[in-house]
Amino acid sequence: MAVIVQKYGGTSVGSLERIQNVARRIAKTFDQGNNVVVILSAMSGVTDNLIHMAEKITEFPDKRELDVLLATGEQTTVALMAITLKSMGYKAVSLLGYQAEILTDSKSTKARILDIKATRIMELIKEKTIVIVAGFQGADEKGDITTLGRGGSDTSAVAVAAAIKADSCEIYTDVDGVYTADPNICKRARKLKYVNYEEMLEMASLGAKVLQIRSVEFGMKYNVPIHVRTSFNEEEGTMVVNDDVNMEQLVVSGVTHNKNQARITLRKVPDRPGIASKILSPIAEAGLIVDMIIQNTRQGNMTDLTFTVEKKDYKPALEIAKKTGKEINAEEVVGDENIAKVSVVGVGMRSHYGVAAKMFETLAAENINILLISTSEIRISCIIDEKYTELAVQALHTAFGLDNI
Ligand code: ADP
Ligand code: ASP
Ligand code: MG
After folding, report:
1. Same domain as 372, residue 264
2. Which helix (H) or strand (E) holds 374?
3. Residues 158 and 18 in one domain
4. Looking at residue 336, which CATH number applies to its domain?
5. Residue of 7, 210, 213 to mutate, ligand 1, most atoms within 8 A of C-beta
6. Cα 48 from Cα 6, distance rounded (Å)
7. Quick one: which H or E segment has residue 138?
8. How many folded domains does the chain comprise?
9. Residue 403, φ and ψ in degrees, nearest 5
10. How far apart are CA 405 and CA 391, in angstroms?
């Protein structure tokens, strides 16, 4: 008997009607002779609401308690799903993260899974019981509840699939697969039949939230094929696979965007050894993640240094940068929250050149100014003014021949 892991995202369990719909889908998979382990998210909007409530009390809620609060979202859906399946006459059991033995480190709100023993899950499977596991949560060594960062149910699903050596891992979401760009902002986006782990990793890290980046890391490490599809119809979605071959023969497989960015510039800082570390070390020590860094060419003995951070880290990062700016006599420290990162991704870039030039020409033709650039072997990213995001994504999508694949 095959073991199938199915993860249903917030929209798929967003109402009682949808929960009942998903229950029928789970029951059908079970009736076809499979063992089924289900991972659920909270109902859509619930996690956001819980965060807002905590932030109404205080600007920076205690993170340990925030995890206790956020974990209730998934606790609700697993219980409702098990109640539904039991009322339909199926054997089903809901498990919270710690009951499923999902051991994490202690980094509240962004914990990492260290190990999944899954003895309880395996016992239940043997008893022909449908197991419903709360996504997004685990517990640390002390038994304290932790959560895995936004979108973390994807990671719960792939990690559980790896731990129980499942035959397949299906991620059910509100779009029917992985697209060449976010279908919600790019009308001409096309569904990909296959996407390579490496490409998916880049796409996830660059803003394609359809899969949480850590879920792709798990899939790649433990060779779990991930099938991204929708619970609203029976169609096949996208397979995320380990194959080295570029199945769709594309140079660029996807265009991604991320509006969750901000930049900080220190103007006219003394250009001497150690200055970048003097500016960036205090930012790192505060636990803030710097993404891109650029140092301008020197004018006299002075230079400008610019870096980007996530929007949520903008205020604390700016405060730290202003303090360091004073210490090193920077002329001024300025910031900009209205920026976005657009990127093109594809393993095909390894064997093609001219991709960067084409990207820059395309943006120039639309009169979009590039503020920062960064590249890897299979990606090129540009920071632009946020208001041009949609225009840039559409133009790049067309320029790289993705409209008609
Ligand atoms: P879930 O609640 O099911 O986990 P998410 O909202 O986390 O769903 O992820 C699905 C969303 O990801 C889609 O609605 C879509 O807007 C967004 N998305 C961004 N980039 C892509 C892409 N390249 N392909 C598909 N979806 C994408
Ligand atoms: N409920 C969590 C979130 O909204 C986890 C998830 O949906 O994957 O981020
Ligand atoms: Mg998600």
Report:
1. yes
2. strand 372-376
3. yes
4. 3.30.2130.10
5. 210
6. 23
7. strand 137-139
8. 2
9. -65, -30
10. 20
Judge whether 224 lies within some domain.
no
Q: What was the pLDDT predicted at 244? A: 63
From residue 6, alpha-carbon distances to 30, 56, 168, 230 in Å are 11, 35, 8, 11
Distance 103 CA to ligand 1 centre (A): 27
Q: Is residue 148 located within the same domain as residue 295?
A: no
Question: Both 159 and 269 in a single domain?
Answer: no
- Identify whether 375 is part of a domain: yes
Contact 7, 156 (CB under 8 A): yes
Last residue of a domain, one of 124, 154, 174: 174
Residues framing ligand 1 (Cβ under 6 A): 9-11, 41, 151, 173-175, 178-179, 181-184, 208-210, 254
Q: Does residue 221 lie in a domain region?
A: no
12 with 140, same domain?
yes
> Which residue range is the domain that position 330 belongs to?
255-399
Q: Report the predicted TM-score, pTM, of the whole model to 2 decimal places.
A: 0.92
Owner of token pair 């929250």: 337
Same domain, 21 and 152: yes
Point out the domain boundary residue: 152, 174, 196.
174
Q: Are residues 163 and 279 in the same domain?
A: no
Same domain, 166 and 262: no
- pLDDT tens, position by position, for the chain (405 residues)? 899 999 999 999 999 999 999 999 999 999 999 999 999 999 999 999 999 999 999 988 999 999 999 999 999 999 999 999 999 999 999 999 999 999 999 999 999 999 999 999 999 999 999 999 999 999 999 999 999 999 999 999 999 999 999 999 999 999 999 999 999 999 999 999 999 999 999 999 999 999 999 999 999 999 999 999 998 899 999 999 887 655 667 899 999 999 999 999 999 998 888 889 999 999 999 989 999 999 887 778 899 999 999 998 999 999 999 999 999 999 999 999 999 999 999 988 988 889 999 999 999 999 999 999 999 999 999 999 999 999 999 999 999 999 998
**C-alpha 304 to ligand 2 mean position (Å):** 39
Tokens of 270: 């003394």
Mutate to test the pocket of ligand 2, among 12, 13, 41 (most ligand atoms within 8 A of CB): 41
The number of C-alpha atoms within 13 Å of 326 and in the hemisphere containing its C-beta is 5
12 CA closest ligand 1 atom index: 3
